[in-house]
Design brief:
This protein is mainly α and 124 residues long. It is built from four helices and two strands, in the order αβαααβ. Strands 1-2 form a two-stranded parallel sheet.
Length: 124
Amino acid sequence: MADALRAAGGPSRSADVASVNLARAVVDGEQIVVLRRGQVAMPGAGSAGPSVGRPPSAAPGALLDLNTATVDQLLELPGVGPVLAQRILDWRQRTGRFSTVDELQEVSGIGPAKFADIRGRVRV
């Protein structure tokens, strides 16, 4: 994250660099949002998500991308509550991009039945 911020020309004077994890690995295509000093992130937004605030829901029938999904978007999946949605983001932050949908099974709390419910609704 620190390298990406530097490559973008560095933070502005009003940037709150403490609002992002500068040690976190970033992934291709990810949008990094650095809050302004005093700005508060909207609930459900995180540094692993693509933007601050609640993104629009996917179109009906559209597959949710595990590598860009926010907590709010993950909550729309069957059987996924706030704790599990955060575990998915934590796995992504710790491990990097999902390379296959099957890797979702490595997230604590996603067993065979839950994975069967989710697998047809997500993509990488």
